[in-house]
Amino acid sequence: MTTSTLPFGAWQAWRAEAASTARKLLANPLTAVGVAIIAVLLAVALFAPWIATHAPLRQDLAAALQPPGAAHWLGTDEFGRDVFSRLVHGTRITLFIVTLVTVVVGPLGMAVGVVSGYFGGRVDMLCMRVADIFLSFPSLVLALAFVAALGPGLDHAVLAIALTAWPAIARLARAEALTLRQSDFIVAAQLQGASHLRVLCRHLAPLCLPSVLVRLTMNMASVVLTAAGLGFLGLGAQPPLPEWGSMISEGRRYMLDSWWTVAAPGAAILAVSMAFNLLGDGLNDALDPRQAS
Amino acid sequence: MTIEPPLLTVRGLQVAYGTPVAPVPVVHGVSFDLGREKVAVVGESGSGKTTVGRALLRLLPRQARIDAEQLTFDGIDLRHARESDMEALRGRRLSMIMQDPKYSLNPVMSIGRQIGEAVQRGGQVSRAECAERVEALLARVHIREPRRVAGQYPHEVSGGMGQRVMIAMMLAQRPQLLIADEPTSALDVSVRQEVLALLDELVAEQGLALLFISHDLHLVRNFCDRVLVMYAGRIVETLAAADLAQARHPYTRGLMASLPSLRHRRAVLPVLQRDAAWSAA
Amino acid sequence: MKARWMRGGVSAALALLGLLLLTFMIGRVMPLDPVLAIVGPDADRATYEQVHHQLGLDRPLWVQFGRYLGDLAQGDLGHALLTGRPVTEDLARVLPATVELATLAILLGALLGVPLGVWAASHHKRLPDHLARVLGLLGHSTPVFWFGMMGLLVFYAWLGWAGGIGRIGLGYEGTIPRVTGLMLVDTLLAGDMAAFRSALRHLLLPACVLGLHSMAYLSRMTRSFMLAQLSQEYITTARVKGLSRRRVVWGHAFLNIRVQLLTILALAYGGLLEGAVLVETVFGWPGFGSYLTSSLLLGDMNAVMGSVLVIGLLFVALNLTADALYRVFDPRARA
Fold it and tell me: Any alpha helices (H) in chain B, and if so which ranges?
């Protein structure tokens, strides 16, 4: 028989649950790989100036389009800039985009979704109609439209991506809220005189959080891809910023002879996107009560 | 008493999940014989009765580990049979009918086609002949308008009819042993007796060995010849159905005592008091 | 039944209207001035005012939108800035190219993805499952434009197997009379086998690239659907009947997911549009995706609105198709 110490309160219970989820996560080898890659991404972004061998914006036309070698680990681009260093500094941009989008989309999507699901009726119909219109476009096309309207630039790209990502989160939060709003404990809170705001914030929202978090994590992968796509079309971070998508776009002209200018940033995008997908998948499996392994 | 040797011999059957280091036994030390008779396996939920049935057909999930001292069917050692051998046996010599036709029949295939699959296993027959045989099978289980029913889908027929379809389908290949896994539990009480009567008829006609899994002691009392009572994965008592009133094991006695009766007035039904000793037998 | 169709139709029309309104609003926010695009930066004030009035830009917003809707009802989508031709003509020119690409892409994606998903599900938690999952994940995480470029590098530049940029070899450009707009069909109709082969070589690589995402998505969904089916009771019944493993998987479980598969196929087809925008850019494919991108970048409102309408109609059509197919394949839905 195993003895277990029962948690004293909500905080302890939450911590125990988080610890067991983390353990389950890391037990899966694929997920562990994903977590490792993200950890590397974070570390590289944090210590970019020290990890990079050259300044990312420094041009050296004499050494343009050099293949990978001792001096330049991943070669140089058409302006003689070191590809490796640009890649390393690009992690900061990628991380910036992913974080900002998540920070905007998470609360916004949840707020709209929870309110919509809780109140129902006209509010719900209106919110979901708006969400549907956004959802009926593939996200890249919509982001494209927004950036085209707002003008190219990193911030506008972030905003555009966020505007395309919130409906999915809202839908998810709404579904959860719809299921939960009939629950007895919600009714109990209301009977005790809790205002709508209180019920929403203290009771409903925390319960919708796990599935929203999983979705947000899985979303991060597609955010990376959309951002890269926008960068490729010249609508994201503007040159000379070392954003991976725009690096591919710039390297395109010389791709046939200097494949490293395109291969390296693309591989980076692939690795990061894959890592987020692995993590999201792993989280999904770990948090899904039906899939007890 | 059966004169010929038993069709099925089971000794020390054990089914466990989990890892070899930390196994979780679900069925433990089950032993019985089955001849051309109707034997009931009775127990509550979680007693392992369904597991026994599925273990015989090797239809448990991959994580289940089946061991036995002896597991012989008509001279064939089932313990080491390969999956291809089991496939050959299933349907043709061993068969099973399941609880709820709503779930156990393929919802997007017509009834005739599903029974036809069983018919076709006996060898390639022409479509016309297959249809004829299907209709004959449906008529045998007392379904009126067999042709119409053959063209219908499972969701279009009632529970009782669906169970008859199931019986027709599973007896199409003329097996020797039939396992009935709670065949009447999902049916209305009024329909139960009809289905049981049908089973009785067919078992007698085809000389089947029947293993009847149920949680309803009262039902099996009148229907079966012998009763195996299971608790927590073990058989705690084996006795003839006629002798149930004189059961000796306290669990069996407790079950019998909990049955309401039309004849005797009972103000309070006794609650079964479980003893940990029963699961350690 | 009729009521359902009508309600669906009204709902779809409303969604389309909302879409158009949204696009219209975005268009008005754009920093690009359509008048300037027509008259050029050196035009004097009078000309500017004249064109401004001609385009109706001095009227209130809702009037402008109303005018647009009115024109729309008559099948007039306005003129595109880039080509100067009617938008309808432009769309008729670019759509077949994308349809050809997308159809082949989804076929490839389905032919590879669905069996992969079935295979993974029937060997749940064993090697094939893990392998399929990793493959699916790779497909899902690869930036499609980069994959296209690598494909060109390897299969065109290094190996010479695939054709390069464009729909057909330079030598055949303009020699094939345009009948359907689908290059494969047109070359066959013209009887030019060499041109057909060239068109095929140019179509295969972008179709494979575009199909990659679909393959990943379809294999993942198929696996998920199959797993749900394989744990059902009727599967046990089929096994009790003594049917072979293959028969059980394909003849019983797969039969039950056909409907869901068709639904997601329809959705996946719509989702190809996203990839098409990028793939067409990489391969110089003169299709709808490139048209949309250049119209957006130019601020060509008529072209953009027309394209949005097409996208909206496409999605509505796909949803309706999926709905109809549901009715055909699932006997329970016919009630």
Answer: 49-57, 83-89, 101-104, 111-120, 127-140, 146-150, 159-170, 189-206, 217-223, 250-258
Position A292 scores a pLDDT of: 41
pLDDT at C29: 64
Instruction: State the average pLDDT over residues B36-62.
Output: 91
For C270, phi then psi, to 5°, come to -65, -40
Lowest average pLDDT, out of B214-218, C1-5, C61-65, C223-227, goes to C1-5
Whether there are 3 or more C-beta pairs closer than 8 Å between B and C is yes
Which ranges of C231-300 does DSSP label H, i.e. alpha helix?
A: 233-240, 245-246, 254-283, 288-298
Ordered by where they begin, the domains of chain B are 8-93+176-279 (3.40.50.300), 103-172 (no CATH)
Q: Please tell me the total count of domains within chain C.
A: 2
Q: Are residues C67 and C110 in the same domain?
A: no
Residue B230, pLDDT above cutoff 90: yes
Domain A28-291 grouped into CATH 1.10.3720.10:
yes
As a whole number of angstroms, the distance between CA C248 and CA C238 comes to 6
Instruction: Assess contact for A242 and A268: CB atoms under 8 A.
Output: no
Angle (CA) B135-B140-B146 rounded to 5° is 35
Mean pLDDT (whole number) for B159-176? 94
Structure tokens at B132: 């004829």
Both C263 and C328 in one domain: the answer is: yes
In this structure, the strands spanning B94-97 and B177-181 are parallel
Mean pLDDT value across residues B130-145: 94
Chain C residue with the nearest C-alpha to that of A252 = C149
Q: What is the dihedral of CA A17, A23, A29, A32, to 10 degrees?
A: 80
B234 Cα distance to chain centroid = 17
Write down the pLDDT at residue B1.
Answer: 52
Residue range B234-250, pLDDT digits in tens: 999 999 988 888 888 88
Q: Two tokens at C30?
A: 């754009």
- Best mutation site among C23, C24, C145 for testing chain A: the one with the most A CBs within 10 Å? C145
Say if residue A182's pLDDT is above 70: yes
Verify whether the Cβ–Cβ distance B105 to C330 is below 8 Å: no
Question: Is residue A68 reached through a cis peptide bond, with omega within 30 degrees of 0 on the bond before it?
Answer: no
Q: What is the ipTM of this complex?
A: 0.88
Confidence of residue C168 (pLDDT cuts 50, 70, 90): confident
Mean of pLDDT values over C192-200: 87
From B90, B99, B153, residue closest to C239, measured CB to CB:
B90
Q: What is the DSSP string of C103-172?
A: HHHHHHHHHHHHHHHHHHHHTTTSHHHHHHHHHHHHHHHS-HHHHHHHHIIIIIIIS--S--SSSS-GGG
What chain A residue is nearest to C28 in terms of C-alpha separation?
Answer: A149
Q: Are A102 and A220 in contact (CB under 8 A)?
A: yes
pTM of the model: 0.83
Grade residue A1 by pLDDT with cuts at 50, 70 and 90: very low
Minimum CA–CA partner of B85 in chain C: C242
C-alpha distances out from residue C154 to A211, A269, C203, C209, Å:
41, 19, 16, 13
Binary contact (B108, C233; C-beta < 8 A): no
